[in-house]
UniProtKB/TrEMBL annotation, chains A, B:
Organism of this sequence: Jeotgalibacillus malaysiensis
Domain named Guanylate kinase-like: residues: 5-184
SUPFAM superfamilies assigned to the protein according to its UniProt record, in alphabetical order: P-loop containing nucleoside triphosphate hydrolases
Protein name: Guanylate kinase
GO cellular component, one term: cytosol
Residues annotated for ATP binding in this entry: 12-19
Role noted for this protein: Essential for recycling GMP and indirectly, cGMP.
UniProt entry tagged with the keyword Ribonucleoprotein: no
Principal EC category: transferase
Family: Belongs to the guanylate kinase family.
One Pfam family here: Guanylate_kin
One MF term in the entry's GO annotations: GMP kinase activity
Keywords: ATP-binding, Cytoplasm, Kinase, Nucleotide-binding, Transferase
Main location: cytoplasm
Length: 204, 204
């Protein structure tokens, strides 16, 4: 009677520190998340291990997987494909483990379409709440600087739309604490727990 | 620009340990919750302070409040009224503080009707997951014992319906940790955060 795992998708504007937060989460001794290894057509670098750092594929293999809808999301950067193999994700979830994806905003959009039941977390730069403070206090910044920041905030805000939660990356430890709380809460949702108990009583 | 607080409603079958969990939550030094003091028509006991242990009211006063819809929930036990004054709850939430209610299942039902945006947490007895283990292992219990437990589980399951989250009270510290995680996650929901930032940018 295994309860399905949660697909955790961490994304946010580039430069916000997604990789750092992910590394910190996985450095915890008791991390319960399974990291989803990406697939790529770029050549392995010195020391990189197939199946650990990436799944290394040829262009033909990768395009065959696209064709067969075997990627949860993919994109092409500087002539190489990068993507998330869907079979690994589904199998790991079915085994009751939470899968952790750390991907770009574009990729997260593709995942939301294919896997709407995922847990989508937007990592937000502290600039937003700093801006909030600045708008209230004022005086220290020129109007131009404020205007540029307001524009950036508007762009970031418009990206948040498809996410379930917003975590500010003010300190990496705080961000991790919040992400862990969100995942814990997800497992305690009534629909999940109830389904498990109902199944148990049906068996009876 | 104060963000509204969350109304946290902790309930569950009688005897599950709601009071113990609530006391443990409030014994934490840095608790961020405001405890909602109940109103009652019973006489104060030795040492009980009006406004701290209860708001003590006469029967006439209490019934006037019922009449004016000034109670979030109320019930009569052994000839005395007990209830939650709604004004205190609304004012505290408007001041950006989270209000904590620990009430019976019947009261929680009334609160859900009047305040559907509350955060409803069902405290479940560990008997449910113990039952799960027993159903799988078997052999140690007579069929009668199992049947009685299954019936109890069915009753508890049918109560869960109107709650957002289910927390098992296996250990009081674990239960508190889970409740704190649920409240933290609630504050990080995209709708909440987004609304705050949008308001900030509108002001601009």
């Amino acid at each position: 009677m295994i309860e399905k795992g949660v697909l955790i998708v961490l994304s946010g504007p580039s430069g916000v520190g997604k990789g750092t937060v992910r590394k910190e989460l996985f450095s915890a001794e008791n991390t319960a998340y399974e990291y989803s290894v990406s697939m790529t057509t770029r050549l392995p670098r010195e020391g990189e291990v197939d199946g650990k750092d990436y799944f290394f594929k040829t262009r033909e293999e990768f395009e065959a997987l696209i064709e067969r809808d075997k990627l949860l999301e993919y994109a092409e950067y500087v002539g190489n494909y990068y993507g998330t193999p869907v079979d690994y994700v589904r199998e790991t979830l079915d085994n009751g483990k939470d899968v952790f994806l750390e991907i770009e905003v574009e990729g997260a959009k593709q995942v939301r379409e294919k896997f709407p039941e995922g847990l989508f977390i937007f990592l937000a730069p502290p600039s937003l709440s700093e801006l909030e403070t600045r708008l209230v206090t004022r005086g220290t910044e020129s109007d131009d600087v404020i205007r540029t920041r307001v524009e950036a905030a508007r762009r970031e805000l418009s990206m948040m739309n498809l996410y379930d939660y917003v975590v500010e990356n003010d300190h990496v430890e705080h961000a991790c604490e919040r992400i862990n709380a969100i995942v814990m809460a997800e497992h305690l949702k009534r629909e999940r727990v109830e389904a498990r108990y109902k199944k148990m009583l049906e068996v009876e």
